[in-house]
């Protein structure tokens, strides 16, 4: 009895300590309550789960995003960014003017400049993205920077890998960051082959013992390619054969995704993000120079597209991507079009969508009919009834798997990137979105959205309410753990 009593006392003290740490470290009420309930009602495993997945890295700062320790130089760069952004705003059209608050917020929060005279090209699905990427990689003269969450050892992965190897042999600086969890298939063969040819390759946040690795919860979900400091690719398409839809292979699941090619000064913040991630995972401390960041006056005026980058992760002071999405929704006056493969919103996003809908703004949400995660799909469904009741139009994509992460507001701004509409993208993963303040691109992306609706089914609130009770309960149970997904 004495030993059992001692065990109970030690367990109670440990539980109290863990609960105090959860309350202190977790900054959202939903997450705090979820972790507290899990720790209290699932003996041992609940506490272990928190220490594996729940530590708040935003408070601990995984790494510093400073590229230079020279404060005078850093202040000079910041002043230049402000001046350049002000100039861009003053020269811009209504697409920027009507979204000034969004541009200013990102500038103040992350020093992301508002850049002008960019060329932007919309790339739909892997069959359109990869030929463009391969052609641009082959034309590289000085450096190739490539960073991906998922890079598969398959046909397209090996094809791009061979190009990287050839360019490294030609003397081009090739730097490659791959997420150690998402790209685990390339560790044994493809990465060693790249390194042997001179490609500098490093895993991001290397996982040493997967089952008990806290860092498994904080992944680099970014997809960035920067070539010679003037061309970049960013969006939702990873490097994998699954993203390529072959007309002859009708049995294969159709993947709908969206990517961007950017040429011009808008590339420079993507370059900055890559260098920060590179210096963290390689520990080589690469410093900026004019080859990595060409002077803005050296960029040809290819077009008049205004671009700004939103990025956030455990290294940022605030969830900047979430803030930018909320601000874009709040600034809309007519129409909001959203595509996302994973929809597990927090209260702030739910409220923003509902307020917009109740204000007479058309809000359309496109989600997959079936997700690649049963639990995530069930949790997402638990939010649909309330949104439908408030007038939000929800469409379920039937043709295949919708993986695009896009937003169009008033057909004036278009957002394309890596962030899903869920807790993980807003709070845990390293993510990046490109915001294009341009009517032409916004109209193109809205046209794509409505084309996708042809392969989607609009949800009906009456039919939705008639679903079996067991499905409703399963979705509500999944929603309880949705902050942990």
Topology:
Layout: H1 2-25, H2 29-41, H3 45-53, H4 57-60, H5 71-90, H6 94-97, H7 100-110, E1 115-124, H8 125-138, E2 143-148, H9 155-169, E3 173-179, H10 190-196, E4 200-204, E5 224-227, E6 231-235, E7 255-256, E8 258-263, H11 267-282, E9 305-312, H12 320-331, E10 335-339, E11 343-344, H13 347-358, E12 362-368, H14 374-381, H15 384-389, E13 393-397, E14 401-402, E15 406-409, E16 413-417, E17 421-422, H16 423-428, E18 431-437, H17 439-453, E19 456-458, H18 461-465, H19 469-480
Parallel strand pairs: 2-3, 3-4, 7-14, 10-12, 11-17, 12-13
Antiparallel strand pairs: 1-8, 1-9, 2-5, 5-6, 6-8, 9-18, 10-15, 13-19, 15-16, 16-18
Helix pairs in contact: 1-2, 2-3, 7-12, 8-9, 9-10, 12-13, 14-19
Descriptive overview:
By secondary structure, the protein is of the alpha/beta class. It has three domains: 2-55; 71-95 and 119-303, Endonuclease Chain A (Endonuclease, Chain A); 320-484, Endonuclease, Chain A. Helices cover 44% and strands 20% of the residues. It is built from 19 helices and 19 strands. It has helices at 2-25, 29-41, 45-53, 57-60, 71-90, 94-97, 100-110, 125-138, 155-169, 190-196, 267-282, 320-331, 347-358, 374-381, 384-389, 423-428, 439-453, 461-465, 469-480; strands at residues 115-124, 143-148, 173-179, 200-204, 224-227, 231-235, 255-256, 258-263, 305-312, 335-339, 343-344, 362-368, 393-397, 401-402, 406-409, 413-417, 421-422, 431-437, 456-458. The strands form three sheets. It has a 15-stranded mixed beta sheet with strand order 4-3-2-5-6-8-1-9-18-16-15-10-12-13-19, sandwiched between helices. A two-stranded parallel sheet has the order 7-14. α9 (155-169) links the parallel β2 and β3. α12 runs parallel beside α13 (347-358). The longest helix has 24 residues, at 2-25. It is globular. The model has no long low-confidence stretch (mean pLDDT 88).
């Amino acid at each position: 009895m004495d030993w059992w009593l001692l065990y109970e006392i030690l367990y109670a003290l440990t539980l109290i300590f863990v609960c105090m740490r959860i309350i202190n470290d977790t900054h959202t009420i939903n997450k705090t309550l979820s972790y507290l309930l899990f720790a209290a009602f699932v003996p041992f495993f609940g506490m272990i789960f928190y220490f594996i997945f729940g530590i708040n890295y935003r408070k601990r700062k995984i790494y510093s995003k400073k590229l230079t320790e020279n404060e005078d130089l850093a202040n000079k760069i910041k002043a230049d960014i402000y001046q350049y952004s002000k100039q861009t705003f003053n020269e811009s059209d209504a697409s920027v003017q009507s979204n000034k608050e969004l541009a200013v917020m990102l500038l103040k929060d992350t020093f992301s400049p508002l850049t002008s005279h960019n060329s932007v090209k919309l790339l739909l699905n892997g069959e359109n993205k990869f030929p463009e990427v391969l052609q641009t990689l082959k034309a590289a003269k000085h450096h190739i920077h490539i960073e991906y969450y998922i890079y598969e050892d398959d046909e397209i992965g090996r094809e791009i890998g061979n190009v990287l190897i050839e360019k490294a042999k030609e003397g081009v600086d090739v730097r490659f960051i791959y997420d150690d969890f998402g790209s685990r298939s390339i560790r044994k063969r493809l990465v060693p082959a790249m390194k042997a040819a001179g490609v500098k390759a490093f895993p991001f946040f290397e996982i040493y013992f997967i089952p008990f690795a806290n860092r498994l919860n904080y992944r680099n979900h970014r997809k960035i390619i920067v070539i010679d400091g003037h061309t970049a690719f960013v969006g939702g398409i990873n490097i994998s054969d699954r993203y390529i839809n072959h007309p002859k292979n009708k049995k294969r699941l159709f993947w709908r995704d969206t990517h961007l090619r950017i040429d011009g000064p808008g590339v420079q913040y993507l370059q900055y993000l890559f260098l920060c991630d590179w210096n963290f995972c390689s520990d080589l401390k690469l410093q900026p120079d004019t080859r990595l960041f060409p002077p803005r006056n050296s960029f040809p005026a290819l077009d008049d597209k205004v671009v700004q980058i939103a990025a956030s992760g455990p290294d940022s002071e605030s969830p900047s991507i979430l803030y930018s999405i909320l601000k874009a929704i709040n600034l809309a006056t007519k129409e909001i079009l959203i595509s996302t493969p994973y929809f597990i919103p927090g209260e702030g996003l739910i409220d923003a969508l509902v307020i917009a809908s109740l204000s007479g703004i058309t809000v359309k949400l496109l989600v997959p009919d079936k997700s690649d995660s049963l639990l995530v799909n069930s949790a997402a469904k638990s939010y649909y009834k309330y949104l439908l009741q408030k007038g939000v139009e929800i469409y379920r994509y039937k043709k295949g798997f919708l993986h695009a992460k896009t937003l169009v507001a008033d057909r004036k701004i278009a957002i394309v990137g890596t962030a899903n509409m869920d807790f993980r993208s807003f709070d845990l993963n390293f993510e990046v979105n490109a915001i294009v303040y341009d009517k032409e691109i916004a109209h193109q992306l809205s046209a794509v959205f409505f084309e996708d609706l042809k392969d989607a089914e609009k949800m009906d609130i009456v039919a939705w309410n008639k679903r079996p009770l067991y499905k409703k309960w399963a979705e509500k149970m999944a929603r309880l753990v949705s902050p942990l997904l």
